[in-house]
Design goal:
This protein is an alpha+beta fold and 359 residues long. It folds into 2 domains: 69 residues, no CATH class; 207 residues, Beta-lactamase (3-Layer(aba) Sandwich). Helix content is 33%, strand content 14%. Helix 1 packs across helix 2 and helix 3 packs across helix 7. The two termini are 35 Å apart. The N terminus is likely disordered.
């Protein structure tokens, strides 16, 4: 017990040193962060954005052999994983406001080939995970085996079309249940690109990144290679980045806490109707989380509901929660593998830190 107390105290001291450079971390926040991060591998980085009443501060840590040291990493890139789904849904919201599609339109009218068994799925059902589609397509495993450390790399548009046209089998009737689907979000991104006749990166830059001055966000890793934090596998070894190919809309964005803080601040501005639309609830779940378009809603003990999403890839874990009414947010990007046995602690820390912000 004494050794554990000494280690925790040492970790808190290092965090306190870091806090003077960026975010003025409170004692309670120091303890939460230290207890969460101390068990992760050497080389682990965590980049935080704290937003309180619309004011943004940043905070970064890196795990070394005997301590966590301060690091300025708010302009460094991490894979954000499934937080990408919020951006795909934001593109959908833009298309709706421009009159290109309606939420309840079936995607069948826009993809140029029939779905197996004449199955009909709407845009809204893809965005709120009520499409009935499985988490991943049945023919994905074969492609993943070709590159297990970069499993999406070889799953291209041809394989997706073949699956949808010849092999598609729903887990439930569309609109009946909400079950998380990477395939659904990836398909949504694919269909939006087909409608616009532009690739996903171009759509992001046009509708979102340029609008909110997210200058260091992209799906093109070569553009930010010099600022990229290396991902770690579950053992703490450097691992391959993921190329999501045709399913890029499910998890292919690389971003920074600085850029994501701009996206969070934009959520607080009621003039951004496309962002407001993504936060309108489209699926009510008494037994779990309600869903908007992309966002999930976490019920807090203080009575607020926080739009939230997380993400995980082979080398990274992320979490982002907003309190719209109070203009508060916590954003966390890490190079902790989603396969690490303790990766769920990142979401737990995100929620715990949200509770420490001024109410």
């Amino acid at each position: 017990m004494k050794i554990k107390a000494l280690i925790t105290g040492f970790l808190l001291l290092n965090i306190a040193l870091a806090s003077s450079q960026t975010h003025n971390v409170t004692d309670a926040q120091q303890k939460l962060i230290a207890e969460t991060i101390k068990g992760f591998p050497v080389g682990t980085q965590v980049s935080f954005a704290f937003i309180e009443n619309g004011a943004v501060t940043f905070y970064g840590l890196k795990q070394e052999k005997d301590s966590m040291v301060p690091i300025s990493n708010h302009r460094n890139n991490f894979e954000i994983g499934s937080i990408t789904k919020v951006f795909t849904s934001t593109l959908l919201a833009d298309f709706v406001l421009e009159g290109k599609v309606k939420l309840d339109d079936p995607i069948n009218n826009y993809i140029g080939f029939p779905l197996k068994d004449s199955i009909r799925i709407s845009f809204k059902q893809l965005a709120n995970h009520t499409s009935g589609l499985p988490r991943m397509p049945a023919n994905f495993a074969v492609s993943a085996m070709l590159s297990p450390n970069n499993p999406f790399k070889n799953y291209d548009a041809g394989k997706l079309k073949k699956y949808l046209a010849d092999e598609l089998k729903l887990d439930s009737e569309p609109g009946r249940n909400s079950v998380y689907s990477n395939l659904g979000a990836g398909l949504l991104g694919y269909v939006l690109c087909e409608i616009a006749d532009q690739d996903y990166e171009t759509l992001l830059q046009r509708y979102i990144f340029s609008r909110y001055n997210m200058n260091n966000s992209t799906t093109l890793r070569d553009k930010i290679a010099q600022h990229l934090v290396k991902g770690l596998n579950a053992k703490g070894e450097e691992t391959s980045n993921w190329d999501l190919s045709v399913l890029v809309g499910a998890g292919g964005i690389l971003s920074t806490t600085e850029d994501l803080s701009k996206f969070a601040l934009a959520q607080f501005d009621p003039a951004n109707k496309e962002l407001e639309l993504t936060r309108v609830k489209t699926w009510m779940n008494p037994a779990g989380l309600d869903i908007g378009l992309g966002w999930h809603f976490v019920k807090s003990k203080i009575g607020a509901e926080w739009p939230w999403h997380n993400g995980g890839t082979g080398g990274y874990t992320s979490s982002m929660a907003l309190d719209i009414g109070r203009r508060n947010a916590i954003i966390m990007l890490t190079n902790i593998s989603a396969y690490h046995p303790n990766s769920k602690r990142i979401d737990e820390l995100c929620f715990a830190l949200m509770k420490t912000l001024k109410q």
